[in-house]
Design goal:
By secondary structure, the chain is mostly helical. It is built from ten helices and no strands. The chain has helices spanning 6-25, 32-39, 43-50, 53-65, 83-90, 93-96, 100-112, 116-140, 146-166, 175-188. 32% of the residues are buried.
Length: 190
């Protein structure tokens, strides 16, 4: 097996530096100069390996929301097989920790308001997640209508995302438990 190309290695370093810079300075403060400094490269090298800032931010969005194959899909890990597993993930500490990835996602959400290509990446990811959740809800509640399952999936995802975003400033230790209980109530009403 050959070594990865230097271009691929540099590209990964730059994407990592971009995420760190967005987390530290926000999406609008993530200038090519700051990203280059974080990557330990010149601005010219950053542009050589990834293109302009708009392309870099789009590539960052894809990197955040893509699976191992590079395809943008559901935000749920591929090993999730049932509704309980999805709830465990969406309301668990990994998804809810106020970390770098969540700061990057918030920055990308902000940017998606004015950047259609990034909005498309986020829409694809969250639409796939809702569809997967609706399937899991339908398996857990086979007598519920397809529309009811989709509505419950919307509610579960909205609860989970709201909990994540609140986690940046709301240190209530019961936040995740209460939010999961709200999501479970939506599903139990089917």
């Amino acid at each position: 097996m050959g070594r990865p190309s230097i271009a691929a290695v540099r590209r990964e370093q730059i994407l990592d530096a971009t995420m760190s810079t967005i987390a530290e300075h926000g999406v609008h403060g993530a200038t090519l100069d700051r990203i280059a400094d974080s990557a330990g490269m010149s601005r010219g090298h950053v542009r050589h390996f990834v293109g302009n800032r708009d392309r870099l931010l789009l590539d960052t969005a894809i990197a955040v929301f893509a699976d191992r194959s590079g395809r943008v899909g559901s935000i749920l890990p591929s090993e999730i097989a049932d509704l309980e597993g999805a709830l465990d993930y969406l309301f668990g500490p990994e998804f809810n920790s106020p970390d770098r990835e969540n700061a990057v996602v918030l920055g990308l959400v902000e940017l998606s308001r004015v950047t259609p290509d990034i909005a498309d990446v986020l829409t694809t990811a969250y639409t796939a997640t809702r569809a997967q959740l609706a399937e899991l809800v339908a398996r857990a509640h086979p007598d519920a209508s397809q529309e009811s399952c989709l509505t419950a999936a919307y509610g579960v995802l909205t609860c989970a995302l709201g909990s994540v975003f609140l986690g940046d400033f709301d240190r209530d230790p019961a936040r995740m438990t209460r939010t999961r209980a709200a999501a479970e109530s939506l599903v139990a009403a089917l």
